[in-house]
TrEMBL record:
<dbReference type="GO" id="GO:0005737">
    <property type="term" value="C:cytoplasm"/>
</dbReference>
<dbReference type="InterPro" id="IPR007864">
    <property type="entry name" value="UreE_C_dom"/>
</dbReference>
<dbReference type="GO" id="GO:0016151">
    <property type="term" value="F:nickel cation binding"/>
</dbReference>
<dbReference type="InterPro" id="IPR004029">
    <property type="entry name" value="UreE_N"/>
</dbReference>
<feature type="domain" description="UreE urease accessory N-terminal">
    <location>
        <begin position="10"/>
        <end position="74"/>
    </location>
</feature>
<dbReference type="Pfam" id="PF05194">
    <property type="entry name" value="UreE_C"/>
</dbReference>
<dbReference type="Pfam" id="PF02814">
    <property type="entry name" value="UreE_N"/>
</dbReference>
<protein>
    <submittedName>
        <fullName>Urease accessory protein UreE</fullName>
    </submittedName>
</protein>
<dbReference type="GO" id="GO:0006457">
    <property type="term" value="P:protein folding"/>
</dbReference>
<dbReference type="GO" id="GO:0065003">
    <property type="term" value="P:protein-containing complex assembly"/>
</dbReference>
<dbReference type="InterPro" id="IPR036118">
    <property type="entry name" value="UreE_N_sf"/>
</dbReference>
<dbReference type="InterPro" id="IPR012406">
    <property type="entry name" value="UreE"/>
</dbReference>
<keyword id="KW-0963">Cytoplasm</keyword>
<keyword id="KW-0533">Nickel</keyword>
<keyword id="KW-0143">Chaperone</keyword>
<dbReference type="GO" id="GO:0019627">
    <property type="term" value="P:urea metabolic process"/>
</dbReference>
Length: 161
């Protein structure tokens, strides 16, 4: 078993990993929740047994390179169900405040991309729950359920229920 304590870089954020962009690496597919774990044991897509025992202060990210050498291993975050909320009219402060308040009361991590707010869900049926929660502003927003790699906004560190 290969034990890893710290990633050596990230294929999306750091230079020097151009040779890996052609897919010449092993993949360690893990969920967003598992990215927060300090100790984890998994197998790569090619069967290499990996034991993560991360140093203090290290948090894995999608694209992190764990081993440099003949068989580099790259973290591949699994996609998950999310709700994408798009504002139909921009700069409506009341709608934005209520939207933030309602999502915040559900303790969901969020990602803000332009005029959209994205947050994870467990099942498609949660769309109905949020449509009811957003009843007072539903005419000003558009809700879409999709599957994607979700990265929470770094300043929105919340605990999920």
């Amino acid at each position: 078993m290969l034990e890893v304590n710290v990633p050596i870089g990230n294929i999306f954020l750091d230079e020097g990993f151009d040779t890996l962009k052609d897919g010449n690496f092993e993949r360690l597919k893990i969920s967003r929740i598992e990215l927060d774990k300090k100790i984890l044991r998994r197998k790569t897509d090619r069967g290499t047994d990996i034991g993560l025992n991360l140093n203090s202060g290290i948090k894995l990210r999608n694209g992190d390179v764990l081993v440099n050498g003949k068989n580099p291993i790259v973290i591949e975050q699994l996609s998950e169900k999310v709700i994408r909320v798009r504002l139909k009219t921009s700069n409506n402060k009341k709608v934005m405040i209520l939207l933030g308040h309602i999502i915040g009361n559900r303790h969901r991590p969020i990602s803000i991309q332009g005029e959209e707010i994205i947050f994870p869900i467990q099942a498609d049926s949660e769309k109905e729950v949020f449509e009811k929660l957003f009843h007072s502003i539903i005419n000003y927003i558009e809700l879409t359920v999709e599957e994607r790699v979700f990265s929470p906004h770094s300043g929105a560190d919340v605990h999920e229920h």
